[in-house]
Amino acid sequence: MLTKMASGKLVFSFIITLMLIFLLPPSHVVSHSNPGDIKDSSSINPQKVNLSVYYEALCPSCANFIVKSLGRVFNDDLINIINLRMVPWGNAHFNKTDSTVICQNGLDECVLNTIQACAINVWHDVNKYYALIYCIEFLAIEGRHSNWQSCFSSLGLPEKPILDCYNNGTGAKLQALYGYETAHLSPPQTFVPWVVVDSKQLGNDYEKFTTYICNAYKSNVIPNACKSLPPNNVSSSKEENPIHPVCYRGEAKNMTSLAPIKRILVHFG
Ligand SMILES: *[C@@H]1O[C@H](CO)[C@@H](O)[C@H](O)[C@H]1NC(C)=O
Ligand SMILES: *[C@@H]1O[C@H](CO)[C@@H](O)[C@H](O)[C@H]1NC(C)=O
Ligand SMILES: *[C@@H]1O[C@H](CO)[C@@H](O)[C@H](O)[C@H]1NC(C)=O
Ligand SMILES: *[C@@H]1O[C@H](CO)[C@@H](O)[C@H](O)[C@H]1NC(C)=O
Ligand SMILES: *[C@@H]1O[C@H](CO)[C@@H](O)[C@H](O)[C@H]1NC(C)=O
Question: What is the residue range of the signal peptide feature (predicted)?
Fold first, then answer.
């Protein structure tokens, strides 16, 4: 399936996706000119920091991270200095025999990963798609993820383009791309949520993403979110004994296959 999907069309949509995600937005790249050529930090072009979050919709630690930790970047000024990239796939994998996607937490997770992938790629606007992701993950925490469609009306966001993306096969292609990307992370992802700041994976330090972002951000203007940080302490232990709960790759107890993806909407009908 993956080989088949790596056709011209897929590569094309991959490039489009990359362009839309990375090439259009950077609004802070151009710095104001600096008369007098003062050789201090003010001559540094502030470059946004890349924050990538590899996750799956129904892993409790992902839901908690998205709602209780990462959501805070929208309340302070951190969102202005990052390119936030959400990658909903996590510990899912392909069954190469019958071309199905198998999600760690079952069928519903495959649906919600795909819906979120569609929201990201249809809307592009992080404020919109994060609102939907947040809403779905909030419901997941409460054990009410099957009410996910209520998020559209409660947020005032249009449901149709997202369901279209889901139903017309675009969602499955996006999932294939996210699956490919996740499988090729270096070092390999071993659990979710898996957080990467620029090219540095945070491992079990993922809750300290703000510290990593602030350390990576080169500008003379220090964001408020960075001013209020505790001393920059970054734990040295990685992978072993995460301090925070995570979902490990391969610990699925109840895998459900999904084929074809279209069949699923009936499930929530
Ligand atoms: C993969 O698909 C084949 C054919 O449908 C099936 O027999 C097999 O059990 C599947 N593997 C997993 C891990 O679900
Ligand atoms: C599928 O739906 C999305 C969202 O409305 C749209 O952007 C895309 O062009 C559609 N693709 C196809 C193949 O119809
Ligand atoms: C952030 O991601 C973009 C797009 O992939 C890349 O061009 C840029 O170099 C990255 N920035 C850093 C600091 O890694
Ligand atoms: C930060 O690290 C320093 C030296 O490693 C240590 O002395 C200090 O207590 C740590 N602070 C916090 C808040 O953990
Ligand atoms: C697997 O999931 C199905 C459907 O959600 C459920 O009925 C079943 O009890 C689960 N099995 C186990 C072993 O958890």
Answer: 1-31
Nearest ligand (C-alpha, residue 103): 1
Domains of the chain: 2-14+47-268 (3.40.30.10)
3-state helix, strand, coil in the chain (%, to 5): 50, 15, 40
- Note the helical H segments in 100-203: 107-123, 126-141, 150-155, 160-167, 170-183
Which amino acid is it at 143?
G
pLDDT digits (tens, 9 = 90+) for 36-80: 433 344 445 678 999 999 999 999 999 999 999 999 999 888 999
Point out the ligand 4 atom lying closest to the alpha carbon of residue 233.
1
Q: Give, using CA atoms, the residue closest to atom 6 of ligand 4.
A: 233
Distance 199 CA to ligand 3 centre (A): 8
Give me the amino acid identity at 158: P
* Among the listed residues 111, 155, 118, 109, the one whose alpha carbon sits nearest the alpha carbon of residue 134: 155
- Using a 6 Å cutoff on CB, does residue 258 contact ligand 2? no
